Amino acid sequence: MKPRALLVLCVLVFGRPLFAAETAGPANTLTPGEAAAGWKLLFDGKTLDGLTPRGSAKWETGDGVLSSVGGSGSGMLCTDELYRDFELKAEFWVNERANSGIYFRCVLTGNVTGTNSYEANIYDKQPGGAFPTGSLVNVTRPVDQPSTIDRWNTYYIRAEGDHFILQLNGVQTVDSRDNQHMEAGPIGLQQSAGPGVVKFRSIKVRRLGPKS
Protein backbone atom coordinates (compact mmCIF):
# COMPACT_ATOMS: atom_id res chain seq x y z
CA MET A 1 0.00 0.00 0.00
CA LYS A 2 1.35 3.46 -0.87
CA PRO A 3 2.25 5.74 2.09
CA ARG A 4 -0.41 8.32 1.21
CA ALA A 5 -3.09 5.65 0.98
CA LEU A 6 -1.98 4.22 4.35
CA LEU A 7 -2.19 7.67 5.96
CA VAL A 8 -5.70 8.20 4.59
CA LEU A 9 -6.72 4.77 5.90
CA CYS A 10 -5.34 5.62 9.36
CA VAL A 11 -7.36 8.84 9.42
CA LEU A 12 -10.52 7.04 8.35
CA VAL A 13 -10.12 4.22 10.87
CA PHE A 14 -8.64 6.00 13.88
CA GLY A 15 -9.81 9.58 13.34
CA ARG A 16 -6.25 10.97 13.20
CA PRO A 17 -2.93 10.11 11.53
CA LEU A 18 -0.30 8.10 13.33
CA PHE A 19 1.78 10.34 15.63
CA ALA A 20 5.14 9.13 14.29
CA ALA A 21 4.32 9.76 10.64
CA GLU A 22 7.58 11.61 9.91
CA THR A 23 11.07 10.26 10.45
CA ALA A 24 12.80 12.11 13.28
CA GLY A 25 15.80 14.28 12.45
CA PRO A 26 18.91 14.94 14.57
CA ALA A 27 18.43 15.50 18.30
CA ASN A 28 17.09 18.90 19.37
CA THR A 29 15.95 19.87 15.90
CA LEU A 30 12.57 20.14 14.20
CA THR A 31 11.84 18.37 10.97
CA PRO A 32 10.35 20.53 8.21
CA GLY A 33 6.98 18.90 8.86
CA GLU A 34 7.12 19.65 12.58
CA ALA A 35 8.09 23.26 12.00
CA ALA A 36 5.25 23.72 9.51
CA ALA A 37 2.79 22.13 11.95
CA GLY A 38 3.67 24.57 14.76
CA TRP A 39 6.01 22.49 16.93
CA LYS A 40 8.72 24.27 18.95
CA LEU A 41 11.72 23.13 20.97
CA LEU A 42 11.62 23.51 24.75
CA PHE A 43 15.36 22.74 24.99
CA ASP A 44 17.74 24.12 22.37
CA GLY A 45 20.41 21.52 23.11
CA LYS A 46 22.79 24.02 24.71
CA THR A 47 21.18 26.35 27.27
CA LEU A 48 18.36 26.56 29.80
CA ASP A 49 16.74 29.48 27.97
CA GLY A 50 12.99 29.46 28.60
CA LEU A 51 13.34 27.11 31.58
CA THR A 52 13.40 28.08 35.26
CA PRO A 53 14.51 25.82 38.14
CA ARG A 54 12.36 25.31 41.22
CA GLY A 55 13.72 23.57 44.29
CA SER A 56 17.29 22.53 45.01
CA ALA A 57 17.90 20.13 42.11
CA LYS A 58 20.78 21.11 39.84
CA TRP A 59 20.72 20.76 36.05
CA GLU A 60 23.49 20.79 33.47
CA THR A 61 23.78 20.65 29.71
CA GLY A 62 26.35 18.97 27.49
CA ASP A 63 26.54 17.05 24.23
CA GLY A 64 22.99 18.09 23.38
CA VAL A 65 21.58 16.57 26.57
CA LEU A 66 19.84 18.16 29.57
CA SER A 67 20.81 16.21 32.70
CA SER A 68 19.95 16.32 36.37
CA VAL A 69 22.81 16.19 38.85
CA GLY A 70 22.36 13.14 41.06
CA GLY A 71 22.40 13.90 44.78
CA SER A 72 21.72 17.62 44.29
CA GLY A 73 18.25 17.46 45.81
CA SER A 74 14.73 17.50 44.46
CA GLY A 75 13.14 20.03 42.19
CA MET A 76 11.71 20.96 38.83
CA LEU A 77 12.84 22.64 35.67
CA CYS A 78 9.72 24.52 34.52
CA THR A 79 8.87 26.26 31.27
CA ASP A 80 8.46 30.01 31.45
CA GLU A 81 5.46 29.75 29.12
CA LEU A 82 2.14 28.28 30.23
CA TYR A 83 0.35 25.44 28.45
CA ARG A 84 -3.11 23.92 28.78
CA ASP A 85 -3.93 21.97 25.62
CA PHE A 86 -0.87 20.66 23.80
CA GLU A 87 1.11 17.79 22.38
CA LEU A 88 4.58 17.05 23.70
CA LYS A 89 7.31 14.71 22.51
CA ALA A 90 10.49 14.07 24.50
CA GLU A 91 13.34 11.59 24.70
CA PHE A 92 14.56 10.57 28.15
CA TRP A 93 17.16 8.32 29.77
CA VAL A 94 17.22 7.19 33.42
CA ASN A 95 19.43 5.06 35.60
CA GLU A 96 18.04 2.45 37.97
CA ARG A 97 17.72 4.84 40.92
CA ALA A 98 15.95 7.63 39.04
CA ASN A 99 12.57 9.02 40.06
CA SER A 100 11.41 11.56 37.51
CA GLY A 101 8.45 12.64 35.46
CA ILE A 102 7.07 15.20 33.06
CA TYR A 103 4.58 17.43 34.87
CA PHE A 104 2.05 19.65 33.16
CA ARG A 105 -0.60 22.19 34.06
CA CYS A 106 1.68 22.87 37.01
CA VAL A 107 0.81 25.31 39.77
CA LEU A 108 2.27 28.74 39.12
CA THR A 109 4.07 29.05 42.46
CA GLY A 110 5.22 26.75 45.25
CA ASN A 111 5.93 23.05 45.16
CA VAL A 112 4.73 21.08 42.15
CA THR A 113 3.30 17.69 43.16
CA GLY A 114 1.29 14.85 41.72
CA THR A 115 -1.77 16.11 43.57
CA ASN A 116 -1.77 19.73 42.36
CA SER A 117 -0.60 19.05 38.79
CA TYR A 118 -0.59 16.20 36.26
CA GLU A 119 2.45 13.92 36.05
CA ALA A 120 3.46 11.56 33.27
CA ASN A 121 5.58 9.33 35.46
CA ILE A 122 9.16 8.12 34.88
CA TYR A 123 9.82 5.73 37.75
CA ASP A 124 10.37 2.07 36.82
CA LYS A 125 11.32 1.09 40.38
CA GLN A 126 8.47 2.87 42.16
CA PRO A 127 7.86 1.11 45.50
CA GLY A 128 4.59 -0.77 45.23
CA GLY A 129 4.33 0.03 41.53
CA ALA A 130 1.02 1.90 41.79
CA PHE A 131 1.92 4.36 39.00
CA PRO A 132 5.08 3.22 37.19
CA THR A 133 6.62 4.76 34.09
CA GLY A 134 3.93 5.37 31.48
CA SER A 135 1.27 6.28 34.08
CA LEU A 136 -0.69 9.48 34.50
CA VAL A 137 -0.21 9.66 38.26
CA ASN A 138 -3.37 9.47 40.37
CA VAL A 139 -5.44 8.92 37.20
CA THR A 140 -4.47 5.69 35.42
CA ARG A 141 -1.57 3.32 34.81
CA PRO A 142 -0.47 1.06 31.94
CA VAL A 143 -1.53 -2.57 31.92
CA ASP A 144 2.05 -3.83 31.56
CA GLN A 145 5.09 -2.75 33.58
CA PRO A 146 7.46 -1.02 31.14
CA SER A 147 11.26 -1.09 31.31
CA THR A 148 13.09 2.12 30.43
CA ILE A 149 16.32 1.94 32.46
CA ASP A 150 19.73 2.65 30.88
CA ARG A 151 18.44 3.42 27.39
CA TRP A 152 16.87 6.28 25.50
CA ASN A 153 13.07 6.27 25.39
CA THR A 154 10.38 8.42 23.80
CA TYR A 155 7.36 9.94 25.55
CA TYR A 156 4.35 11.40 23.78
CA ILE A 157 1.80 13.38 25.79
CA ARG A 158 -1.44 14.88 24.49
CA ALA A 159 -3.57 17.01 26.81
CA GLU A 160 -6.78 18.44 25.40
CA GLY A 161 -9.42 19.60 27.86
CA ASP A 162 -10.12 16.63 30.13
CA HIS A 163 -8.73 14.08 27.65
CA PHE A 164 -5.21 12.71 28.04
CA ILE A 165 -3.19 10.33 25.86
CA LEU A 166 0.27 9.01 26.75
CA GLN A 167 2.50 6.88 24.57
CA LEU A 168 5.77 5.31 25.70
CA ASN A 169 8.14 4.12 22.97
CA GLY A 170 5.25 4.15 20.52
CA VAL A 171 2.91 2.10 22.73
CA GLN A 172 -0.16 3.81 24.14
CA THR A 173 -0.23 3.55 27.92
CA VAL A 174 -2.99 6.03 28.81
CA ASP A 175 -6.22 7.17 27.17
CA SER A 176 -8.26 8.70 29.97
CA ARG A 177 -10.39 11.62 31.04
CA ASP A 178 -9.96 13.64 34.21
CA ASN A 179 -10.83 17.19 35.26
CA GLN A 180 -8.81 17.78 38.42
CA HIS A 181 -6.47 20.35 36.85
CA MET A 182 -7.96 22.39 34.03
CA GLU A 183 -5.96 25.63 34.13
CA ALA A 184 -2.92 26.40 32.01
CA GLY A 185 0.43 26.09 33.74
CA PRO A 186 4.10 25.39 33.16
CA ILE A 187 5.46 22.09 31.92
CA GLY A 188 8.00 20.73 34.42
CA LEU A 189 10.82 18.19 34.31
CA GLN A 190 11.35 16.47 37.66
CA GLN A 191 14.41 15.36 39.57
CA SER A 192 13.77 13.71 42.94
CA ALA A 193 16.21 13.63 45.84
CA GLY A 194 18.74 10.80 45.78
CA PRO A 195 21.42 9.42 43.47
CA GLY A 196 19.14 8.92 40.48
CA VAL A 197 19.90 10.67 37.19
CA VAL A 198 17.52 11.63 34.40
CA LYS A 199 18.49 13.01 31.00
CA PHE A 200 16.31 14.70 28.39
CA ARG A 201 16.71 15.73 24.77
CA SER A 202 14.53 16.60 21.78
CA ILE A 203 11.77 18.09 23.95
CA LYS A 204 9.13 19.42 21.57
CA VAL A 205 5.70 20.96 22.14
CA ARG A 206 2.79 22.09 19.98
CA ARG A 207 -0.21 24.04 21.25
CA LEU A 208 -3.68 22.74 20.42
CA GLY A 209 -5.96 25.69 19.77
CA PRO A 210 -5.31 29.44 20.00
CA LYS A 211 -5.96 29.70 23.76
CA SER A 212 -3.94 26.71 24.93
Index terms:
13 strands, eight-stranded antiparallel β-sheet, 2 helices, single chain, 35% strand
Give a nutshell description of this structure:
By secondary structure, this protein is mainly beta. The protein is built from two helices and 13 strands; from the N terminus they run ααβββββββββββββ.
Commentary on this structure:
- This protein has a single domain, classed as Jelly Rolls (Sandwich), CATH 2.60.120.
- The protein is globular, with a radius of gyration of 17 Å.
- Strand 3 (59-62) and strand 4 form a beta hairpin.
- The strands form two sheets. Strands 1, 3, 4, 6, 9, 10, 11 and 13 form an eight-stranded antiparallel sheet that branches.
- The protein contains two helices and 13 strands, in the order ααβββββββββββββ.
- 8% of the residues lie in helices and 35% in strands.
- The protein is mainly beta.
- The longest helix is centred in the first third of the chain and has 12 residues, at 3-14.
How would you summarize the topology of this molecule?
Layout: H1 3-14, H2 32-37, E1 40-41, E2 51-55, E3 59-62, E4 65-68, E5 75-79, E6 86-94, E7 100-104, E8 118-122, E9 153-160, E10 163-168, E11 171-177, E12 188-191, E13 198-207
Antiparallel strand pairs: 1-13, 2-5, 3-4, 4-13, 5-12, 6-9, 6-13, 7-8, 7-12, 9-10, 10-11
